[in-house]
Amino acid sequence: MPADPPPLTPDCGSCAGLCCVALPFAKSADFAASKPAGTPCAHLADDFRCAIHTRLRPSGWTGCTVFDCHGAGQHLTQHTFGGRDWRAHPELRAPMFRAFPVLLHLHELLRYLTEAAGRAPEDLREETEAARARVAALTAYGPEELPGIDVDAERARANPLLTRVSEAVRAALPGPRANHRGAVLLGTRLRGADLRAANLRGARLVGADLRGADLRGADVTGTDLRGADLRGADARGALFLLPSQLKAARTDDATRAGVPRDRGRHAGGPSRD
């Protein structure tokens, strides 16, 4: 078991195109076609790269451009399966495809806990670090053990702690600290809104106008920001903000977020065309 947690930044060049094979797609505004889990996407090339990488959005594959495996793809390929892939070793197809969704969710949870451990107040630091170490240890499980992990139970175990860390951090910040947890705010006009230290966990802000809004210190865990206009918004210090959330939103050079907007390469890496 490695002493250090796995990298949480995607490196598609070290992966076997797992997000393009193991996961299902449903035809929608995010995906141009449907495909079942375990079936390679029609655009996945022989070298595990995306054949339409530079044309994903205009081709109707927006969902691929915002997907983030948090490093689970290369971890599974290079460590769990020792650098082997499902094409060269067809016998690994089923075990790899079973393990990938589990590791994907564990890496996402580990990302949240890693941030929480770095921001938790002193009285919560030891408990938060222990939770982070527990999930990091789970990511080191082997291909036979990973599918047996109850991801929902691990989330249920971690979420109360993540909530406590969020509440403690936001309580120490200035701002109105509005509570919009789980709110449906589709297309809502929030231009210039003061949302400092707000609770936006699970809020649906699809298409919302957040131009120039102040989101500093807001908890945006699971906030749906698809198509939200964040031009000129200030989200520095926002809690649990994922780069994939920013990719799904509309941003500009004046958007301040404190996290990179493009971590790694998505959807199989650069195209070959």
Unreliable sequence segments:
263-273
* Inertia-based shape: globular
Task: Give me the Rg, rounded.
Answer: 19 Å
Estimate the mean pLDDT confidence. Answer: 93
What is the percent of helical residues? 25-40%
Strand content: under 5%
Distinct helical segment count: 6
- How many DSSP E strands? 0
Descriptive tags:
273 residues
Overall description:
The protein is an all-alpha fold. Helix content is 31%, strand content 0%. The longest helix has 27 residues, at 93-119. The radius of gyration is 19 Å and the shape is globular. Residues 263-273 have low confidence and may be disordered.
Summarize, please.
This protein is 31% helix and 0% strand. The protein is mainly α and 273 residues long.
Show the helix and strand layout.
Layout: H1 62-65, H2 72-80, H3 93-119, H4 122-138, H5 151-171, H6 243-248
Helix pairs in contact: 2-3, 3-4, 3-5, 4-5
